[in-house]
Amino acid sequence: MTDDSQRNFRSVYYEKVGFRGVEEKKSLEILLKDDRLDTEKLCTFSQRFPLPSMYRALVWKVLLGILPPHHESHAKVMMYRKEQYSDVLHALKVVRFVSDATPQAEVYLRMYQLESGKLPRSPSFPLEPEDEVFLAIAKAMEEMVEDSVDCYWITRRFVNQLNTKYRDSLPQLPKAFEQYLNLEDGRLLTHLKMCSAAPKLPYDLWFKRCFAGCLPESSLQSWRLACPLLDGGFEWTPGPWTPGTPLPHPRHTGTRCQ
Q1: What is the pLDDT of residue 214?
Q2: What is the pLDDT, as a whole number, of residue 103?
Q3: Is 111:103 a contact under the CB 8 Å cutoff?
Q4: What would you measure as the largest C-alpha separation in the chain, in angstroms?
Q5: 191 in the same domain as 111
Q6: Dihedral sign, CA of 109, 113, 118, 124?
Q7: Which CATH number is 45's domain given?
Q8: Domain end: 148, 163, 178, which one?
Q9: What pLDDT is attached to residue 183?
Q10: HEC string of 188-222?
């Protein structure tokens, strides 16, 4: 049996017994062994398959430009990222905007506001809508990224990319959502239209937040929108929104959202 035949046989076998991700993980590990990481291939992989949790932060940092493609530079660049994180956090503590008791997601928000020149005069000022979006995404990111420095940088770069690269795509998403819903659950779409609920769905909230903070936690376990968005594919299809698993299922979105 040739090497290709053996690999194909293993892929079919693993998929049948529920270990579909074995071959994908090996493929990702091969990509990550290169001295210079191929960001285009990593983007393609992220669109097609779920990222293993042990490699998720690394891949996201490379794709978001937090780390350069060259492995040899990673340690030094992350050292600078950590120093910047510590300096900004220290400044916020000095002006008493945050403390050790401040929720971590709120700390990320204040750091982002300070670095972008949008820190309000007082922490008691009400949050702007864009701040609520950042906060929701930061909380969702916390569920997937353990390291606080990584979580801040990934959230910050993700939100920046969402606001710049994909802002013009947002108005197109409600129509794309209805088209997808019609394919997946036409009866539900018909019901929503009959009771005049379709136009009242909180599309703006859903898409600006990428569903973060809009769905039950059980649904957010598969919240991995960053992977496909990094590749420039902001479309409503089963693949790009959640590699491997559609997120969210239209019936859950239409009936269980907050």
Answers
A1: 78
A2: 96
A3: no
A4: 70
A5: no
A6: positive
A7: 1.10.10.750
A8: 163
A9: 87
A10: HHHHHHHCCCHHHCCHHHHHHHCCCCCCCHHHHCC
